Amino acid sequence: MSPAIDYGEKIPNNVDLAGDRRLQRALESWQPNFLQWWKEMGPVVPTRDVYLRTAVDVGRDGWAHFAHVPMDQYRWGIFLAERRGDRRIAFGAHQGEPAWQQVPGEYRAELRRLLVVQGDTEPASVEQQRRLGLTAPSLYDLRNLFQVNVEEGRHLWAMVYLLHAHFGREGREEAEELLHRNSGSAEAPRILGAFNEETPDWLSFFMFTYFTDRDGKYQLGTLKESAFDPLARTCDFMLKEEAHHMFVGTTGVDRVVERTARLMVEHDTDDVGPHGGIPLDVIQKYLNFHYSVSLDLFGGETSTNVANYYTAGLKGRWGEEGRDDDHRLTDATIEVDALGEDGTVGRVEAPALVGLNTDLRRQYIADCEKGVARWNRVLEQAGVTGRLRLPSVAFNRRVGAFAAVEATPDGRVVGADEFERCKDAWLPTGADREHVRSLMQPVYEEGRIASWLAPPKQGIDGKPFAFDYVHLA
C-alpha cells in the first residue's frame, strides 16, 4: 500500500521523499530548472487560474480534485500506484520471481534508455502545443488543453524521479538533458520523430491527442507490466491521467465531424470551407497524416531489442496477464506485415518474440478503429454518406518494413513519381492547412464556441459548457 499523497511537501509525493534526504535535495535542485522550462516552453496564454484536476489519491476512490488553480502553482509531484507486496514477474525468463524493487545491474542500461525515451515524449508535447491557447475555440477547450499540458509535465516528473532514485549520476544527467532537448530544435531535437512535428491548429491537436497519445497509452501499458516494480506502478498511475488526453482527442474529432456534417446537410454541399467548416476530405487527410506518423512510433515490424526486453522482463505485452499462453513465447510465431517479393503489402511468419512490435501495433490499430467507427456514426446520424477510414499500414511510413516504398491509402505500392503526383489527395496540403488556420480564431467568452466545431455534450466535473473554466490574465 502506498502512503497518501503529501501536499505539505515542496514536491508532493507518495514515495516518502522526506525519508531520503539525498534524493529529496537532488529533486529540489532539479525543480527550479523544470519551472524555468515551463516558463519558457509551456503555454503562452497568460491566465490568472484554470479549473484543473489535481491528483489527491492514487487509489480507486477519489483520486482527483477539481479547483481553480494558478498554472504556475500547479502541484506537480511524484505519484506511484499502490504497491502489491506479493507481485511477481508475469513473463519472460524471470517469470514467477518476485518483482524487482531495485534495478538489476545487468539491465541497468536498457531500463535507463526506456525511461529516457518515454520521459522525452512528455515535455515534447507541451512544447508542440504551447501556442495553441492563442486560438482556443472555447474556454472549455482551453481548459482541456491546459489539463493535458500540466499532466504531461507531471509525467515528466514521474520519469525524472525514477532516473534520480535508481540511476545515480547518469540518471541525474539524463534528467537534465530532458529539459535541454526541445521539440523541432535543429540542434537538440526530441528523440522520436512525431514529437518534432508542429501542432499548429486545433484539428492537429485533436488528432494528436487521439492517435499519438493513444500510442502513449500502449507504450505505458507495456511498461506497466515491467518486472521493475517502481516503473510498473508509475505507469499504472500515468494511465489514469492519459485517459483524459485521449478523451480530448476522441470527443474533439467528434465535434469537428458533427459540425462538418451539419454544414454539409444545411448547405447541400461537400465543400463546407466557404461556410466556415472543415471539409470531410481535409479531416481524412489530417487523419491519414497523424495515424501514419503514430504507427512509426511502434518501431519496426520485427525487433530483436524488444524481444530481449521481453525475455528480460523489462517490457511486457498489452494485457500480459490476461494472455492465454506460456508468457515466454520461445516457440510461438506471429504473422508480421511485410513487403512481398512481388512488391505488394502482405504478411510473413516470424518468431513471436521478435514480432512484439507488430503485436502491440495491432492492439493499437484495433483501438483506433473504434474511434473511426464512432465518427462514422456521427456522419450516418446526420444523413451524410461519406465515411472516414484508417489508411493502410504501408501508407506514409518512414520506419519499418514499408519505409523504403510509397503506398496509397488503400495499400497499393506505387512509384515515387505517382505518389508525388497524388499525395495532395491523401495528405494535408499547404492550402488545406491555411484554410484550417484561417478558422482558428480565439473564442474566450464563457458559453460561446467557434463555428467550425460543435459544443461538447457535457462539461467537465459535472459543470456546464457555459462555465468559467479559465480566468485570463
UniProtKB/TrEMBL annotation:
The keyword Ribosomal protein does not apply. Keywords: Oxidoreductase. It comes from the Bacteria. One of its GO terms (molecular function) is oxidoreductase activity. Its EC number is 1.14.13.208. The keyword Oxidoreductase applies. It is an enzyme of class 1 (oxidoreductase). NCBIfam families: benzo_boxB (TIGR03225). This is Benzoyl-CoA 2,3-epoxidase subunit BoxB. The lineage of its organism: Bacteria, Bacillati, Actinomycetota, Acidimicrobiia, Acidimicrobiales. The gene is boxB.
